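Lecture notes, part 5. Sequence design as translation. It can be helpful to think of inverse folding as translation between two languages: the language of shapes and the language of residues. The source text, in structure tokens, appears below.
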């Protein structure tokens, strides 16, 4: 059995990149970060609990990826540049092969986003992963939820709903041919946070949120903070490749209320349409215009002809009564 300190040294300690923002990484009482002069620190925490956010026995490499991906997605939604992250880990046992795979998935995503693991805490307990990310952003360019204006256009990146489709297939709530599950499953297990897009939208988008709990619910949070409403065309929603082959009702429901999408929902004035498309091209991510911000509160959803649809938001709430 590995000791706590052997475990940290073997799987979670690497020398910080020379010239990067990390002055001192794992191994001291605190890490030391040097954010770019004049920028604000952007900080966010997300926890993944076994049995709640992932199945017991989940692939540890995918888990390492996802634990960091969901946190990077919050930096993306703020337009913040990643600086570093900490990892608080409760483990039932120091299992070397589990740890090797977990740290491989975690650090591969960290490398691809140039963010370094700078510290953490390790204890024995039921499997629980908690990551805090640190990023930086110029004060005037942070993509806050409260920045939308009436008549701004409403956009979403990538595609929606495949993660929910994969989840329900794995839970046995619906049946999905194996080849379609193979398409949808990476969206659930290995979300790709939209950090390049978030950064490119600095100075263009007026507000943003990442879609983690379903588009309707997350858009609702943005609108509440901006004290505005929206009208949205359900037939304009970009469906995931696997979801696109499902029934119209399921497509609509999973695109509107899916969860685990980790796309960006954002607003920008109509005259910035070309700039938005240019930012998306630079980032290599598709973006779709799905509606418009209104002075009237609430979200009105229509079909492609403008006829109102009755939809309800079933955004996930950990403490909702069953
Ligand atoms: P402390 O006694 O200050 O709580 P620890 O003994 O818990 O410090 O940790 C020793 C060092 O290892 C610290 O720099 C801490 O940030 C780092 N560390 C602990 N657990 C992890 C982990 N899971 N991932 C990365 N660094 C970790
Ligand atoms: Mg400690």
């Amino acid at each position: 059995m590995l000791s706590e300190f052997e475990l940290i040294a073997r799987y979670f300690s690497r020398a910080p990149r020379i010239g990067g923002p990390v002055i001192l990484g794992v191994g001291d009482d605190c890490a030391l970060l040097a954010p770019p002069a004049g920028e604000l620190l952007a900080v966010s925490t997300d926890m993944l609990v076994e049995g709640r956010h992932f199945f017991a026995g989940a692939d540890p490499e995918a888990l390492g990826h996802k634990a960091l991906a969901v946190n990077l997605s919050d930096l993306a939604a703020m337009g913040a540049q990643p600086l570093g992250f900490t990892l608080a880990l409760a483990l039932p046992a120091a299992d070397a092969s589990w740890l090797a795979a977990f740290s491989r998935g975690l650090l591969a995503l960290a490398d691809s986003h140039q963010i370094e693991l700078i510290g953490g805490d390790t204890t024995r307990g039921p499997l629980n992963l908690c990551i805090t990310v640190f990023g930086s952003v110029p004060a005037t360019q942070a993509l806050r939820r409260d920045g939308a204006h009436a008549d701004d256009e409403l956009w979403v990146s990538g595609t929606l709903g495949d993660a929910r489709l994969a989840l329900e297939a794995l839970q046995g709530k619906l049946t999905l041919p194996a080849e379609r599950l193979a398409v949808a499953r990476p969206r659930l297990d290995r979300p790709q946070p939209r950090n390049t897009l978030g950064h490119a939208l600095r100075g263009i988008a007026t507000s943003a949120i990442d879609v983690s709990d379903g588009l309707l619910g997350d858009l609702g949070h943005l609108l509440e903070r901006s004290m505005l409403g929206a009208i949205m065309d359900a037939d304009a929603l970009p469906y995931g490749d696997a979801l696109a082959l499902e029934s119209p009702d399921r497509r609509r429901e999973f695109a509107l209320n899916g969860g685990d999408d980790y796309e960006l929902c954002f607003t920008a004035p109509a005259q910035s349409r070309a700039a938005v498309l240019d930012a998306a091209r630079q980032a290599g991510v598709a973006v779709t215009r799905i509606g418009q911000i209104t002075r009237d509160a609430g979200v009105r959803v229509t079909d492609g002809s403008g006829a109102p649809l009755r939809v309800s938001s079933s955004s996930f709430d950990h403490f909702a009564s069953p």
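The translated text above is only one of many valid answers, since several sequences can fold into similar shapes. Residues 8, 12, 26-29, 87, 89, 117, 119-122 surround adenosine-5'-diphosphate (ligand 1) (CB under 6 Å).
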